[in-house]
Design brief:
The chain is of the alpha/beta class and 358 residues long. The protein folds into two domains: 3-148 and 313-342, Medium-chain alcohol dehydrogenases, catalytic domain (Quinone Oxidoreductase, Chain A, domain 1), CATH 3.90.180; 153-289, NAD(P)-binding Rossmann-like Domain (Rossmann fold). Helices cover 27% and strands 24% of the residues. The chain is built from twelve helices and 18 strands. It has helices at 40-46, 50-54, 99-102, 143-147, 149-162, 178-189, 202-210, 228-233, 246-255, 276-281, 297-307, 326-334; strands spanning 3-6, 14-16, 28-37, 61-62, 66-74, 86-89, 92-93, 113-114, 126-130, 134-136, 170-174, 194-198, 214-216, 236-241, 256-264, 286-289, 317-321, 339-342. Strands 3, 5, 6, 9, 10, 17 and 18 form a seven-stranded mixed beta sheet that branches. The chain is globular, with a radius of gyration of 20 Å. The model is unreliable at 352-358 (pLDDT under 50). The structure holds zinc ion (2 copies). One zinc ion (ZN) binds at residues 94-95, 97-98, 100-101, 106, 109-111.
Length: 358
Amino acid sequence: MRAVIKADDGVGCTFVTDRAEPRLRPGQVRLEVGAASVCGTDAEIYRATPAARELGLVFPVTMGHEVAGTVVEVGPHTAGPSVGTRVAVETHLSCGDCFFCRTGAGHNCRTMSLLGIDVDGAFADRVVVPATSCFAVPDGMDLETAALLEPAGSAMHAVIRAAAPVAGASVLITGAGPVGLVLAQVVAALGARQVVVVEPNGRRRDLVTARGAEAIGTDVHPLDVGDRAVGVRGGFDLGFECSGASAGLGSLVGAVRNEATVVSVGLVNGDFPLAVTRTLITRGLTLRGSFGRSLWTTWDQLSSLVGTGRVDLDSLVTHRLPLSGLPIALDLMRDEAGKVLLLPSLSDVREAPVAAGA
Ligand SMILES: [Zn+2]
Ligand SMILES: [Zn+2]
């Protein structure tokens, strides 16, 4: 079958047409890929960055982890979705047996495998996944939208992890990439009073305002645009870091009120300086991290918000390409592209592969 593989730890990837179909083991299902979306992590893997090396890639591996498809084969002795079921897939493949898995927190699994990183992934005609990692796509949702439930779920999960009231709250978000854009919609849907997104890129700021939130550049202090209650309280009630920049986290800590909660979602490389007495102790801030998605609370809540039209994922998609178009997708994402979908149903790119740069 066709697949985009990472053959070794060098820069680039290889599009092949003769990737072997794995045999199904008990507990597994085979999906025909309907749509797979390209993630910033795929760019790191393509460019063989230090962050990608830390992921523990196993070579060769088929890339791709944000996927929805249709079950075409069920392994022996396997309970779960039957042939013909449309599913989206949780990337973090949990063991089902460790402390976290047995206490409903499989996103913290001690022996987690990662689709498209240490297990063959979804930039292919077909992908094999555990039946327990499949989420049945609600009726009325197409597979392109369903492929976005995984990345958008990172935003939904961050709101759940905040464990703070969103209704009536003022929310400050740094970074208007796909996760920040979804987060702005989710908190608005849950009744946030004011939603402000800090984003240096003007085109991305337009995407924020098109969805009804406020957007400011990094040259504006968030407190200058806070509403009256923000002024009275001395800051925003809730902050979400989605840019992956340490400076974003710093600006959130400086712009939330006492006893606010700040959740880190974007992968910040390196250390973050924290004035413990001045920030944590005397201001009583709660700093939390959020990784992955809870099974299946995140998925249920997000798909309900999407299904009822309160959160729009489709408008995140700016490009659709065939499987062989991954290098083109990564080039587009360097600029202003939102989510890029790879669709096996599209004809492959015939011309020489376009380098996505080092
Ligand atoms: Zn991803
Ligand atoms: Zn586990």
